[in-house]
Design brief:
By secondary structure, this protein is of the alpha/beta class. It has a single domain, classed as 3-Layer(aba) Sandwich (Rossmann fold), CATH 3.40.50.1580. Helices cover about 30% and strands about 30% of the residues. It contains 6 helices and 12 strands. The strands form 2 sheets. Strands 5-11-10-6-12 form a 5-stranded mixed β-barrel, surrounded by 4 helices. A two-stranded antiparallel ribbon has the order 7-8. Helix 1 crosses helix 6, helix 2 packs parallel to helix 5 and helix 3 packs across helix 6. The longest helix is centred in the last third of the chain and has 20 residues. About 5% of the residues have low confidence. The structure holds the ligand O=C(O)c1cccc(C(=O)CC[C@H]2O[C@@H](n3cnc4c(=O)[nH]cnc43)[C@H](O)[C@@H]2O)c1. The site of ligand LNDFFVEH has 18 residues, from strand 5, strand 11 and strand 12. Its EC number is 3.2.2.26. Pathway: Quinol/quinone metabolism; menaquinone biosynthesis. Catalyzes the hydrolysis of futalosine (FL) to dehypoxanthine futalosine (DHFL) and hypoxanthine, a step in the biosynthesis of menaquinone (MK, vitamin K2). It catalyses: futalosine + H2O = dehypoxanthine futalosine + hypoxanthine. It comes from Streptomyces ochraceiscleroticus.
Length: about 250
């Protein structure tokens, strides 16, 4: 099984590959992108000895940049480069830190997306926000395979719920309330998942989104961010991921 993991920044990519043994192999792809290729150990996660059992997959981690457009460009480039090489990824994962909606997703928790929803793709009208789908075109959400989401939740302890993608970090209680009114199952907010999911859908590859919560969604408070804690939780999640994937064959 071959997995593409797309993060926004190198610190997130390195937190993902830190769950695996050894130094990642670096592979250049067009557009100046660089894949960090690792081979996670078998179920149970991290392993560094010569006797380590080979894991159920090969993982390519890519730091594509912040925001849905950068994420879509990076993911689509990696997927296309693979396709031109006669290869195909089995799964694409959007991963990184994110904001958590209270009280469901506290700082330090892990969320797996049942739904990856574009929070601001549509039109503002006098009667409120109208999603792009209600305007008669486009897509505003992707649903990862249910069975895979359940397996990941069981293996990692992740909370299943909607993960929103926006181009702007929420900075007020009023905006957080508005988002929750439109997406009652929202647990997390980030800036890349929907872009990664669009690229995966274009290539017919299943998608997942995993977010570790670094800050609450709401009034801006930089002092409240717990980025180190969230990155450590991301490494722990990817150490547990082989258990979820080894229980199933290709999604
Ligand atoms: O300046 C601020 O107040 C602020 C608050 C939270 C996050 C940021 C970022 O610039 C982080 C963007 C980066 O991290 C992900 N992320 C983390 N927390 C959130 C969030 O609450 N809402 C949206 N995105 C978040 C995001 O995916 C980006 O990759 C700034």
């Amino acid at each position: 099984m071959h997995i593409l993991v797309v993060t926004a920044v190198p610190a997130e990519r390195d937190a993902v590959t830190a769950a695996t043994a050894g130094r990642p192999e670096r592979i250049s792809v067009p557009g100046g992108f660089e894949l960090h290729r690792t081979r996670p150990a078998a179920a149970g996660g991290m392993s560094d000895g010569p006797d380590a059992a080979e894991g159920p997959y090969v993982l390519d981690a890519l730091a594509a940049g912040v925001g849905p457009a950068a994420a879509a460009a990076g993911a689509a480039t990696a997927l296309t480069a693979a396709a031109l090489g006669g290869h195909r990824y089995d799964l694409v994962v959007s991963a990184g830190i994110g904001g958590g909606f209270a009280p469901g997703a506290p700082v330090g928790s892990l969320v797996v997306a049942e739904e990856i929803a574009a929070a601001d793709l549509g039109a503002e009208t006098p009667d409120g926000f109208v999603p792009v789908t209600a305007l008669g075109f486009g897509t505003d959400a992707h649903r990862p395979p249910e069975e895979l989401v359940a397996a990941v939740a069981a293996a990692t302890g992740a909370l299943p719920g909607t993960v929103l993608t926006g181009s702007t970090v929420t900075g007020s209680a009023a905006r957080a309330k508005e988002l929750l009114a439109r997406h009652p199952r929202a647990l997390a907010e980030a800036m890349e998942g929907f872009g990664v999911a669009e690229a995966a859908a274009a290539h017919g590859v299943p998608v997942l989104e995993l977010r570790t919560i670094s800050n609450p969604v709401g009034p801006r408070d930089r002092a409240a961010w717990r980025i180190g804690e969230a990155l450590a939780a991301l490494t722990a999640a990817f150490a547990d991921l082989p258990r979820a994937l080894s229980s199933r064959s290709t999604p």
